[in-house]
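Shall we go through a protein fold together, starting from nothing but its sequence? Label the sequence line and the structure token line clearly, so we can match residues to local backbone shapes. Would you write everything just below, so we can both look at the same thing?
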Amino acid sequence: MDTADQAVTVAAGGATSVTEQPAGRRPASRPGRAAPARTRWWAQLPYWSSLALVLTGLAWIWYGGSQRVRGGTLTLSGAMFVAAFARLVLPETRAGLLVSRRRLVDVAVLAALAVGLLVTGLVLPAPV
């Protein structure tokens, strides 16, 4: 019996026994934990839509010059509000890459960024 095809089990009394695994199957690296579920592409949709808005705002600022900074900043603020709202209402399995901490912390950080960008966008002087 090959050592790679063996599994060691511990009984309640502390005795150990060796059982043979079927060929080609390896024991899980962490017993008692299920394998991670395969995520679907639509689970990342809130993240990708927020990222698209951020890239749109950055492109607006970059290509528009100093005349378009206000609009680009307000677009970035909107992207952060969209991300905060998506993180607030969607469960963790549907929020995708927007999930990095607890829900309250994620929403608070994204909302603070959005408010800061909104205030910055509104305070900027209008181009002449």
Summary: The first helix runs from residue 45 to 64. The helical segments are 45-64, 69-89, 92-95, 103-123. Residues 88 and 103 are 7 Å apart (CA to CA).
